[in-house]
Specification:
Elements (H helix, E strand, L loop, with lengths): L1 E9 L3 H19 L2 E6 L4 H7 L5 H7 L4 E6 L9 H13 L4 E7 L17 E7 L3 E11 L4 H15 L9 E8 L2 H16 L4 E6 L5 H15 L6 E6 H10 L6 E4 L1 H14 L7 E5 L5 E5 L16 H13 L3 H17 L13 H14 L1
Parallel strand pairs: 1-2, 1-3, 3-12, 5-10, 8-9, 8-10
Antiparallel strand pairs: 4-5, 4-11, 6-7, 11-12
Helix pairs in contact: 1-10, 1-11, 1-12, 6-7, 8-9, 10-11, 11-12
This protein binds 3-isopropylmalic acid (IPM) and manganese (II) ion.
Enzyme class: oxidoreductase
Pfam family, one: Iso_dh
Organism: Methanothrix thermoacetophila (strain DSM 6194 / JCM 14653 / NBRC 101360 / PT) (Methanosaeta thermophila)
Length: 374
């Protein structure tokens, strides 16, 4: 069996961590009797600066022929913030309709957590982040008098809502961003969360801000309740996003599956990463169960560490295990996760973020060695 897997090393430290991910996945493949053929796509800052192209329709179509993409990181200080992130990373999440962003928050043995008196049995939940809607839809703008008529209308109506005023002086300028969620979009991701909970400890926590942003998140909450009715065995709770950041720190053991709209999911998973030992250990999967999914560490391209062979590759290797699992290679995936666990428990080979001085490639070598010997 040969799996063809597009790989996008990307920017900054992306190529270094992806190299280790490939190494470990190839080892697991070899051991379990299958092959991976990597198809490399050099998307990212260099490609953009050279050609002016982010990702072409043609490339997207090509990528869409595969079930899983392996991604390093996107983002580069030579390019204005947001251009590459929106033009490549978010473009792919949206194009492939990867509506589930699965982010496990699991403290492995041997890893230090900043949470006092909490251990691996307390920190083991999964965040299911909605990945295609909310404030990420890219609708918004700035409006100022004297620009187009439409701008002026938007501005007037928003000012009217806010202040009951009709303002059209030239000095006034506003910016606005529209968040949108759909019944279908919420239903499918919340349903995924409940299904996942059925395989775990049967508890789902919803995240919203229905007390203030009540149109958008009141709707989310309503749909959550609707979906929940079909899962009588699953217990639920509702959390305002501000409060859940507090509970993640104080009582992480309460959580099993946490389902969140896109932006809140983004925010709380950086916190989740910290309580599981740092961004160097946090993997993510952008899933479309019927289409093309994409696997990546949740951290960024860390440009200041580029080329130093210093960054922790474990988040990327772990994302690789999720990729194998997605392809149906469960035993190989399990071996990779077990090898990660073993390497952290033994603690001989660790990068600087975990208090060690090993290099990126030494960690990759060690995990590959453990996969082979398991
Ligand atoms: C993430 C990142 C992205 C996001 C950025 C880089 C667009 O923060 O994957 O969490 O906001 O989703
Ligand atoms: Mn993020």
């Amino acid at each position: 069996m040969i799996y063809k897997v597009p790989v996008i090393p990307g920017d900054g430290i992306g190529p270094e961590i992806i190299a280790e991910g490939r190494k470990v996945l190839e080892t697991a493949a070899d051991k379990h009797g299958f092959d991976i053929e990597w198809i490399e796509y050099p998307l990212g800052a260099d490609h953009y600066l050279r050609t002016g192209e982010l990702v072409s329709e043609e490339t997207l179509k090509e990528l869409g022929r595969y079930r899983a993409i392996y991604l390093g990181a996107i983002g580069d200080p030579r390019v204005k913030p947001g251009v590459l992130e929106k033009g490549i990373l978010l473009a792919m999440r949206f194009y492939f309709d990867q509506y589930i962003n699965l982010r496990p928050v699991k403290l492995l043995e041997g890893v230090w957590t900043p949470l006092k008196d909490k251990g691996p049995k307390d920190i083991d939940f999964v965040v299911v982040r909605e990945n295609t809607e909310d404030f990420y839809i890219g609708q918004g703008g700035r409006a100022r008098s004297g620009r187009s008529h439409a701008d002026l209308e938007v501005k007037r109506s928003l000012y009217n809502v806010k202040f009951g005023l009709d303002i059209d002086s030239d000095s006034d300028e506003i910016a606005y961003q529209i968040g949108m969620v759909s019944r279908e979009g919420c239903t499918r991701v919340i349903k995924y969360a409940f299904d996942l909970a059925m395989e775990r400890r049967k508890h789902v926590s919803s995240v919203d801000k229905a007390n203030v942003l009540s149109d958008i998140y009141g709707f989310w909450r309503e749909i959550f309740e609707d979906v929940g009715k079909s899962y009588p065995e699953v217990t639920t709770d509702f959390n305002f996003v501000d409060a859940i950041t507090m509970w993640f720190v104080k009582n992480p053991e309460w959580f099993d599956v946490v389902v969140a709209p896109n932006m809140f999911g983004d925010i709380i998973t950086d916190l989740g990463a910290m309580i599981q030992g740092g961004l160097g250990l946090a993997p993510g999967a952008n899933l479309n169960p019927e289409g093309t999914s994409m696997f990546e560490p949740i951290h960024g391209s860390a440009p200041k560490y580029k080329g130093m062979n210093k960054i922790n590759p474990i988040a990327t290797i772990w994302a690789g295990a999720m990729l194998l699992e997605h392809l149906g290679e469960k035993e190989a995936a399990q071996d990779v996760v077990r090898a990660i666990e073993l390497s952290l428990r033994e603690g001989r080979v660790r990068t600087y973020d975990l208090g060690g001085s090993s290099t990126t490639s030494e960690v990759g070598d060690e995990i590959a060695r453990l996969v082979r010997n398991l």
